[in-house]
């Protein structure tokens, strides 16, 4: 018995002296409960194990602070198909919760309000339903609330006005109803408020117009009415109000002037005497709320009863009209929402500049002094600022163009990037290449130098860079290029009989000439462009447009990437036979290295095959056309042209770099091909 008591006392002493172990054990249980709910079929979180340690780096998407406490959950875009468990409340030291771009469903658990240290809450672009829990108002450190693009219903909790540190509120594209709470105007640090594409009605509270930090207010595509506070004119393009047919005001383009019916009772406290026939009491009346508890007073109750009696009659009269207009607006929204792009030039990332707690893997990206080579405060000395500004996109434009990086728009992935098809506001189709921050050069000066190089490229055979965007919040940079519809040259190689499109001879010769012109342009020195070696010429990097004109992709990309990523790409080139042999001894790339890759590419176009064997080279040297020319051509080619192209291919892929011709010389030689004229 004495021994048992001693063992018990020893255990208690051990536990009390190791609070981190106690806390960690509870957090582990919470994480395992979350895993069971988020990933019920255990498809995406196999690294989360009951026998593991969340803080040793083995748990995917989990980061801990210096005290060994779980401080960050980053599982955005993982394909999660489950629910958010109430067990999330067990992660009491969480500062960042990033579950956006998944397929989560169900309600947001009210227990989430226990995360009082949380700074970032990203649940956007899921299938969440139910109401926004008012318990969120207990999260006193919250700065970013992202709940947009879900199926949330109910009204916006007035209690959100108690979150003094809140800077970004994004609730757009849900099914929210009711009025805009006037309490949101109490958020002294609020920079961005997006309530667009919901079913909100009533007027725009005066308090919001008086919020000094507010730079973006987006309420378009609702059923708002009444006089727009004139103070909102200070936001310029940051105030978006289209598709609210009941709004009126002076000094706002596309808004009608208010008539007598819009000023039913000028003596009332609503903004500028706007009609409040269909406005609930919470729209323009500040409630004495703090957190989730509201103070009750008999006076306010009596006032509410009288006000409610007046409103009930009027709301009943307006119900049919509002319902009819809502149906009309929703139909219109379905037509336009897919590729709606905000005019705002302030995105979520620009709104985040405050102090972040330790533990988040995005901490260095979210600081105002963190990684953001395109920050507005950046000094672009030595670069053409007009060009940089004209090519800059904001994150909203990129997200809207790609439908929030939908898998349906995914064109391809590599070890360091993903490319999506997108549609810009003007209807033009683009390809958006996302590159993770960890793959980009950490030296911002070097990164800017590389980006400046990319902006200088202008040639008919080089894919045009339309713009760029860097996001601290997502930890990515995006390059926006013209979309090239026919894919890359690889899809025209190894075509089986009757199994794909076969390029005719004249088209092949034209493609060869176009590739040569593009490479000659890269290698040439121009007034605004230095000599540039591509370093990754391959069939995958030659895109074919609707007129079968070839365009070189990823030109100069290595100027933005870390050395290990560049080296990894070179290993891929070597495996496919494009890497010049001298690189193994010199470790350096030159124009002649690109020429070697061009020679291999030319052999591929002639033979129609990916793999270029020694027998193909021998047949080309002996002019045995039947043995190296693509059989899908069925002999429909000019032998003298085939002989000339084969000779060029052999010269370009010569073992010695000194024997290889320049791209300029190749372009001149190709000019004599009749099929190229």
Automatic annotation (TrEMBL):
PROSITE patterns, alphabetically? Answer: PROTEIN_KINASE_DOM (PS50011)
Q: Look up the signal peptide feature and give its range.
A: 1-24
Q: Which GO terms describe its biological process?
A: regulation of innate immune response
Any Gene Ontology CC annotation: membrane
**What keywords were assigned to this record?**
Leucine-rich repeat, Membrane, Repeat, Signal, Transmembrane, Transmembrane helix
Q: Which GO terms describe its molecular function?
A: ATP binding; protein kinase activity
Listed InterPro entries: Kinase-like_dom_sf (IPR011009), Leu-rich_rpt (IPR001611), Leu-rich_rpt_typical-subtyp (IPR003591), LRR_dom_sf (IPR032675), LRR_N_plant-typ (IPR013210), PRK1-6/SRF4-like (IPR046959), Prot_kinase_dom (IPR000719), Ser-Thr/Tyr_kinase_cat_dom (IPR001245)
Where is it localised?
A: Membrane
According to the entry, every stretch annotated as the Protein kinase domain falls at 405-677
At the top level of its lineage, which domain of life is listed?
Answer: Eukaryota
Q: What is this protein called?
A: Protein kinase domain-containing protein
The scientific name of the source species is Glycine max (Soybean)
